[in-house]
Design goal:
Largest sheet: 5 strands, antiparallel
Strand order of the largest sheet: 5-6-7-3-9
Number of strands: 10
Radius of gyration: 28 Å
Order of helices and strands: HHHHEEHHEEEEHEEHEEHHHHHHH
Number of helices: 15
Strand content: 5-15%
């Protein structure tokens, strides 16, 4: 049912002219103490009470992914008056009409990124674009808040860009007395796949410390601050993406989405530990998380019994050497084996004693942690692109 614009526009105009008085009495508007409100606002509320098309705004409910709540008349007054003050009463009423007729709301999910840079914006996939930090032309209030939070809470991490994803949310507006359905489909707002793919491309830690949904101006019911991640890393570098990296990123996204739930969970956990291992300031913390990532990675597909600790050090190093050294010389495979073996010793020592052994102190230990992280990242990419290895076949090759 269409709104009566000829009646509503003058009401919105009059209420907007009394906006200052409305602000002074805003608690009365929320508490429905109409006698304290300007006559113009009372008249607008009376229209909302009588208009059939606005029945859901009289105590109904709304739902979006991640939230929802009651819909009261004051919310609609607030929207119309604020929108008219910025544009006009005619635009505000037109926006309300558009909202009422829309079955869904086209939105943008904005994701703050640390650790990934680029010389220019690039499309990750249709509807998903990475924008370098210095080239964001439409910064919003939440972006400024989140960027300040990252800078204040991290030692060496700074925002390096944003990812904007076009998403569509169903509009669910339910009349009073009816039970609204739950909205639990997070599939088009989930950032995990992007985070995994970016980390497997970039050699340094990657963080997506927050993301939120930007609703269109004509969306009457919306929420500020729908933040879904709260992760601050101690440090990140900034890897500048090349055309080769971008091509690889797209390929990895396709592969990750094709994984079954069990393999996805394993990849996610191994990669998250790799991120932490690369972001810690303290070598002990780096070693502990890297040991977890290392063991998880090089046991993927292994059907042997990991309880045999006596051979664990050897098996992991051999897996690394054979998997990553398939196209390398014998000496290069020996070097990978040595890195794997030394990494195991260093990380195990950190886990058991809470410190880095003098054998791996200083530059040698830092280099080993870096080489170990690279080894894990390359192996995860190899397995993602070509499947979990059949270790008997790999070891006999």
């Amino acid at each position: 049912m269409a709104l009566n614009a000829a009646t509503l526009v003058p009401l919105v105009t009059a209420a907007t002219n009394d906006r200052a008085k409305l602000s002074e009495n805003f608690p009365a508007l929320q508490l429905d103490q109409r006698e304290k409100l300007p006559v113009s606002v009372q008249s607008l509320l009376a229209y909302i009470d009588s208009e059939t098309a606005l029945s859901a705004f009289r105590g109904g409910q709304y739902r979006f992914v991640g939230g929802g709540g009651d819909v009261q008349p004051y919310m609609l007054v607030h929207f119309l008056v604020d929108r008219a003050a910025v544009t006009s009463a005619e635009v505000a009423v037109s926006d309300l009409e558009r909202y009422l007729q829309a079955p869904e709301i086209p939105c943008v999910q904005r994701i703050l990124v640390c650790g990934v840079g680029a010389s220019a914006p690039f499309e990750i996939e249709p509807g998903t674009t990475f924008i370098p930090w210095g080239q964001i032309k439409d910064a919003d209030e939440i972006l400024e808040q989140e960027a300040a939070r990252v800078r204040a809470g991290a030692l060496f991490s700074y925002p390096s860009g944003v990812i904007d994803r076009e998403i569509v949310l169903p509009k669910i507006l339910v009349d009073p007395g009816r039970e609204p359905p739950s909205v639990n489909d997070w599939s088009n707002t989930d950032t995990s796949t992007l985070a995994l793919a970016l980390q497997l491309v970039c050699p340094d830690a990657v963080a997506l410390p927050a993301n939120w949904i930007r609703f269109p101006d004509w969306c009457v019911i919306w929420q500020r601050g729908m933040r879904y991640l709260w992760v601050n890393l101690e440090r990140t570098g900034t890897h500048q993406m090349t055309e080769t990296d971008i091509t690889e990123l797209r390929s990895l996204l396709t592969r990750i989405r094709a994984l079954g739930q069990k393999d996805y969970d394993t990849l996610r956990l191994a990669t998250s530990r790799l991120v932490l291992a690369q972001s810690h300031m303290q070598p002990v913390e780096r070693a502990i998380d890297l040991r977890i990532a290392y063991e998880m990675t090089f046991f993927m597909g292994d059907t042997g019994d990991p309880r045999y600790q006596g051979e664990l050090r050897f098996r992991l190093a051999m897996h690394a050497a054979k998997l990553l050294g398939q196209a390398k010389t014998a000496d290069e495979r020996k070097q990978i084996f040595k890195v794997g073996r030394d990494l195991y010793d260093m990380c195990s020592g950190a886990i058991h004693s809470g410190r880095i052994s003098s054998d791996f102190d200083g530059e040698r230990g830092q280099r080993l942690l870096s080489e170990g992280a690279t080894m894990v990242r390359l192996a995860l990419k190899e397995m993602l692109m070509n499947g979990k290895p059949s270790w008997p076949d790999v070891l006999m090759a």
